[in-house]
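Ticket #4471: structure output looks truncated?

Reporter: J.K.
Steps to reproduce: submitted the chain below (222 residues) through the standard prediction queue, then opened the result file.
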Amino acid sequence: MYLRIDGSQYRQILVAGDIHGCYQLLHQQLQAYQFDPEQDLLLSVGDIIDRGPQSLSCLGLLEAPWFRMVLGNHEQMAFTALLSGMEQHWQRNGGDWFSRLRGEARLRAERLLRRCEQLPLVMEVTHLPQRVVIAHADYPAAHYRYEQPVDAEALVWSRDRVSRALEGEGERIGGADLFLFGHTPLKRPLKFLNQLYLDTGAVFGGRLTLLRIKRPEPLPSR
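Returned output as attached by the reporter:
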């Protein structure tokens, strides 16, 4: 359920809000940050597929050594549909791109979607000025602790905390400095106490939010 990442191993670390098949938009954003796949790391709050035009390209990020993600509800819908053979619910929620694939593209998509079943639900990034925790929808506990049992469905699906935050209500989550979530599309990133929501509706015509949680060290002056 949990994955711990040593932030000291990377020059720069970015966290992307829900990408939803907007691969070209992601590529443009990475260029703007001068992202170097040899030195940098891109993290995702989940929901890299469905609704957008390039879901298979986004799914291919799973094969990139410079990319890590937590499970989103759309990835969960996808591999559940494949395992059960019942794809109607997924297709109604943006998974219709899969039904249009043929040949090698479809086989590749199936292989990658099955890998999603092994994705972590929570990521913690260590050796940064702040202790950063990432989940798709929520961290459903009053206090964070690495590997403590929490409700897996709430991690991926819950909107209770963000709904309260939009009303100006809620509480800090103990145990970490910053919690990063996606799942609920917003007009702009929402910061509430030590929680930051990064889904800004890229697939609905909004912007794709990238947050830099580690900056490159400045070059030494001569």
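Triage note (M.O.): checked the attachment and the full token line is present. The chain has one domain: 2-214.
Status: closed, working as intended.
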